[in-house]
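## Example pair
The file below holds two records. Each record gives the amino-acid sequence first, followed by its structure token line.
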Amino acid sequence: RYTDGDLSLKKSSNLLIIFLFLIAGCVAQSKVQTEGDFQIKKCGTVNVNVLSQMPVCERECQEEIEKLKNLLVEKLKQADLFEHVGSDIENYELIINVRITELLRVTSKDRFWLGAAAGRAKVTGTVELFDTYQNKIIGTFLVEGQSSGGTIFAGGTQQAIEKFVEQLVNFMHEKIII
């Protein structure tokens, strides 16, 4: 048998759990799926291309893709995996082709007006590594980055882009042969 005190404690516990979920929400996530194992030789010069493969990509979408490309180039330089990294480099040894297949945007306005109901921003893309010396694709993998969600304080599109780039750079770091 439950007493009134037991029921009150149970209600309080349930409310506390709901409150903590609303505050904590879901954390930002990222993942990689490979299409077979491969390794990357340490090369000197790398060219980065980022394109949309979505049926519709309006001006805001193109701006987000440009931000992703710039952040990817910056993070690859910081990781010091290659001697030269850019999106307009000549005589490159490796081409990193990123094809964005999904971009779910959540802006700060969306988050302000809709709060947790705005959902989670998401970026998904296929990455293809092309070795120009061997004249062949040496690796292909899928990368996904998601923003946090579930609260009014959750992240947006920028956080999803950052998670996408972070996962891509970390994965390439694991595959480099020195």
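Second record, same layout:
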Amino acid sequence: EIVKIAEIDKKTADFAMVQELAKLSHTLGMRASEDEYRRTAELMENQNKVAITQMWLKVKAEKQKIDRDNVQGLAAIYGSMDPKAMIALMDDPAKRADLIRMMAQTNMQGASADVILAAAAAQNPELARVLIERERGKREDRDKDIEEKKKLLDQMADRLQQMYNTGMQAMSESAKHPGSTTQIVK
């Protein structure tokens, strides 16, 4: 009977092990199915994200093309317009101010530095004061140059007068002594 009990215990243990293995394989199968389901769901979600992103990129590219075509059309229209007409048609005050500033810069092309500074001085009182001081300094320098030149010219005129007088005196002396070969140089 002990042998039979041992056999029964062995068969019971084998049966319990088979049942445990069946449960374990069922659990593993469930996990495998669940993992596969999660991978499939994640893959589908990623594919959906990619498809949506591609769709939005197409929409964005089409919108950019429309905007670019619109800008090109406006450029063609505004390009043929007089700047004053463009300023008059502009609704946005900031863009209007930019156009006015750009027109002023265009008008200043080829202008001298003094003209450009004078235009800037109309907007900046400090710059206007500096320009006035600079002009005052230039005028004083010109006046000094004129005085120096006048002084030099007066000195040259005096020197020429002296030379003329000396020459005339020498001629007068030589006229007093006709036939003399002696020259008087003073």
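Notes on the second record: The helical segments are 2-79, 83-89, 93-108, 113-121, 125-176. The chain has a mean pLDDT of 83.
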